[in-house]
Input
Amino acid sequence: MAWKDRNVFSWRRLAYSFKYAFQGIAHAYSNEKNFRFHIAAAILVTVCSFVFQLDKVEWLFILICIFGIFVLELINSALERIVDLISEEYSQLAKQAKDLAAGAVFMYTIMTVIIGLVIFLPKIFG
Output
C-alpha cells in the first residue's frame, strides 16, 4: 500500500506495519520447517530456563539466542524468496546466495548451542 507522505506519523500506518510483520511471522511458521523447529526448541529452552531458575544475565543470553535465530531464519527465508523471484532458472550464484544465508543461520545455531551448554550443563551436573 502506497502512503502519500512517508514522513508524517500515522497510527494507521504503524498498525499496518505491525500487521504485515505478524503476517510475515505467520507465513514463516506455516511454511518454514526450520522456523517451526526453532520455535519448539525455544519453548523447550524457555521451560528449562524457568526450571533451573536462571539469573538475569543468563536469561539475557538465552533471549538473545532465541530471538537472534528467529530473526536470521526470517532473513534467510526472505533472501530465498528474493533469489527465487530474480532467478527463475538454476544459477550457481543464486545457489551460493542461498547457501551463504543458510550457513549464517547454521553458524548462529552452533553459537546458541554452545551458549546453552555453558549455561545449562553446570546446572544439570553441578
The first helix runs from residue 11 to 31. The mean pLDDT is 94. The CA atoms of residues 13 and 120 lie 43 Å apart. The domain at 11-121 is CATH 1.10.287.3610 (Helix Hairpins).
